[in-house]
Amino acid sequence: MKIQLTSVMVDDQQKALAFYTNILGFVKRADIPMGEYRWITVVSPDGSKSVELLLEPNAHPAAKTFQKAMYDAGVPASMFAVSDLQQEYKRMKILGVAFRSAPTAMGPVIAAVLDDTCGNLIQLYQEAPQGA
After folding, report:
1. CA neighbor of 120 nearest in space, from 60, 81, 43, 68
2. pTM
3. pLDDT digits over 1-25, tens only?
4. What is the rounded distance in angstroms from the CA atom of residue 21 to the CA atom of residue 10?
5. What count of other Cβ atoms lies within 10 Å of the Cβ of residue 4?
């Protein structure tokens, strides 16, 4: 068994595609019209091309309620690993990304939380340096 596809609910697929590619640096893999919505997936340029993130519309009322509750509670919808969190934090701040928290040591990782502009909080993390 392996993880091949996971999703994050978004309130605007086009805005999400722009954010996840232009800001986070993912690469569009699929963009297939599906009636009112689209099947849009992105992949990491640095990771396995077989692991896709689906930018899933939060069209169902339960999805909207869940997404808002998680956002309001400060719970990240997903987490992405980076090799240099300080560098990514600085780069994204210059691009205008709103962070809920700056890079903070949290046991074995350093983490920061950002707003993806599509209804979610996303946590970026890196392994803490040895001996830190």
Report:
1. 68
2. 0.93
3. 999 999 999 999 999 999 999 999 9
4. 14
5. 9
